[in-house]
C-alpha cells in the first residue's frame, strides 16, 4: 500500500507503505509453535516415558506387580545372557526377519508393480489384496490353525494326492512351528504392502516406462532398473515399517498358535517379553529383554536406512 504526499508547489510524491512487522531474525513472526505443545506433551508422556521406564525396570528385581521391588543392577542382564531360552529366541527372531522380510518386500513390490500397470480387474485385485489386513489377528490365527492342524486342510490335501508320508503336526513340530509363523507373517503383510507399493508406483510418470520399452527393455528390467530406483526411498520406508511390525508384533501370532513351543522352538524375543512379564511374573527379566529388543530395533532401522541410502 502506498501513500501520496504533495509538497508545496510540487508534484505528488508516492511513498511506499512500511513493511510488515517482523521478528528480530527478519522473518515474519509465527504464532503456531504453541499449537504443537499438546502433541509434544503427549509424545513425551506416552512415548518417551515408557522407553525410560523400560530401562528403569530392567535394573530392578521385581517378581510381580504387587511384590516388593529391589535394585538388581546388572543382575538381570547376567540372568538373561545365561538363559538358553533367550538365545533360542534370538535365533528364532533372526531367522524370522531374515526369511520373512526379503520375501515380503520383494514379492509385494512385484505384485504392486503388476497392479500399477492396471491390468483388467486391477481395482478388484487391490480390494482382494487388502483382505488379510481387514481380518483380525485371532481370525487369521484360526485360519492357519484350521489349515495346519493334524486333520486340517494341508494334511488332507497331501493325503488326497498320495503324499500322506509328508503329513505332519505342523504347529506342534519343532522343525516346522517357526516356519508356519513366518508363513503367517508373510501372508498377512504381503497384500497390504503391495497396495502401498502400487499407490506409490501410480505416481511415477508413464513416460519413464514407455521410454524404457521403446529402448527394448522388457517388464522385468523396467520394473527393477527404472521404477525401483525412482521409489527407492519409499521402499526403504516400507521396509522399516515391516521390520518393526515383524520384530515387535510377532508375539500375538506365537501366543495364539504355538505358545512358543514345542519347547522354545518358536519363541521370539517379543513373545519372551510377554511370557516373562505376564506368565512368569518376572518383570525385571522381561524388561531387560525389552531393552535388548529396543536396541535391536534401533540398529535394524539404522541398517535399513543405510542400505537404501536415503535421508528420511
- The number of strands is 4
Radius of gyration in whole Å, from Cα?
Answer: 28 Å
- For the terminal residues, how far apart are their CA atoms? 43 Å
The secondary structure category is mainly alpha
Strand content: under 5%
Order of strands in the sheet with most strands:
1-2
- Separate helix tally: 13
Oligomer description: single chain
Please tell me what the overall shape is. globular
Mean pLDDT: 86
Tell me the series of helices and strands, N- to C-terminal: EEHEEHHHHHHHHHHHH
Please give the share of residues in helix: 55-70%
Domain ABC transmembrane type-1: 90-304
Region (Disordered): 1-28
Subcellular location: Cell membrane
Protein name: Sugar ABC transporter permease
What does this structure look like?
- The chain is built from 13 helices and four strands.
- It has helices at 37-57, 75-81, 84-116, 122-129, 131-134, 137-148, 153-160, 177-201, 206-214, 219-230, 232-257, 269-279, 283-308, and strands at residues 2-5, 13-16, 60-61, 70-71.
- The strands form two sheets. The protein has a two-stranded antiparallel ribbon. Strands 3-4 form a two-stranded antiparallel ribbon.
- The two termini are 43 Å apart.
- The model has no long low-confidence stretch (mean pLDDT 86).
- This is Sugar ABC transporter permease.
- Pfam families: BPD_transp_1.
- Keywords: Cell membrane, Membrane, Transmembrane, Transmembrane helix, Transport.
- It comes from Streptomyces endocoffeicus.
Amino acid at each position: 500500500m502506498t501513500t501520496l504526499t504533495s509538497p508545496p508547489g510540487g508534484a505528488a510524491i508516492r511513498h511506499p507503505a512500511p513493511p510488515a512487522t517482523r521478528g528480530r531474525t527478519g522473518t515474519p513472526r509465527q504464532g503456531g509453535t504453541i499449537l504443537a505443545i499438546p502433541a509434544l506433551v503427549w509424545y513425551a508422556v506416552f512415548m518417551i516415558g515408557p522407553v525410560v521406564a523400560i530401562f528403569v525396570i530392567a535394573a530392578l528385581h521385581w517378581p510381580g506387580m504387587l511384590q516388593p521391588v529391589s535394585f538388581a543392577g546388572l543382575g538381570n542382564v547376567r540372568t538373561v545372557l545365561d538363559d538358553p531360552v533367550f538365545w533360542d529366541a534370538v535365533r528364532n527372531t533372526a531367522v524370522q526377519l531374515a526369511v520373512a522380510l526379503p520375501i515380503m518386500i520383494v514379492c509385494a513390490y512385484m505384485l504392486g508393480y503388476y497392479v500399477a500397470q492396471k491390468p483388467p480387474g486391477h481395482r478388484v485385485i487391490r480390494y482382494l489384496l487388502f483382505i488379510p489386513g481387514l481380518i483380525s489377528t485371532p481370525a487369521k490365527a484360526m485360519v492357519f490353525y484350521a489349515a495346519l492342524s493334524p486333520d486340517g486342510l494341508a494334511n488332507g490335501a497331501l493325503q488326497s494326492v498320495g503324499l500322506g508320508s509328508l503329513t505332519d503336526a505342523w504347529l506342534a513340530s519343532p522343525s516346522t512351528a517357526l516356519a508356519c509363523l513366518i508363513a503367517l507373517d508373510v501372508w498377512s503383510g504381503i497384500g497390504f504392502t503391495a497396495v502401498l507399493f502400487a499407490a506409490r508406483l501410480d505416481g511415477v510418470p508413464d513416460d519413464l516406462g514407455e521410454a524404457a520399452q521403446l529402448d527394448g527393455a522388457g517388464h522385468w528390467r523396467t520394473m527393477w532398473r527404472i521404477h525401483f530406483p525412482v521409489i527407492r526411498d519409499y521402499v526403504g520406508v516400507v521396509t522399516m515399517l515391516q521390520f518393526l511390525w515383524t520384530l515387535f508384533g510377532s508375539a500375538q501370532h506365537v501366543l495364539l498358535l504355538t505358545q512358543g513351543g514345542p519347547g522354545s522352538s518358536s519363541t521370539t524375543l517379543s513373545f519372551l517379553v510377554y511370557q516373562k512379564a505376564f506368565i512368569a511374573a518376572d518383570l525385571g527379566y522381561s524388561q531387560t529383554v525389552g531393552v535388548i529388543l529396543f536396541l535391536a530395533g534401533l540398529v535394524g532401522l539404522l541398517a535399513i536406512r543405510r542400505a537404501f541410502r536415503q535421508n528420511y
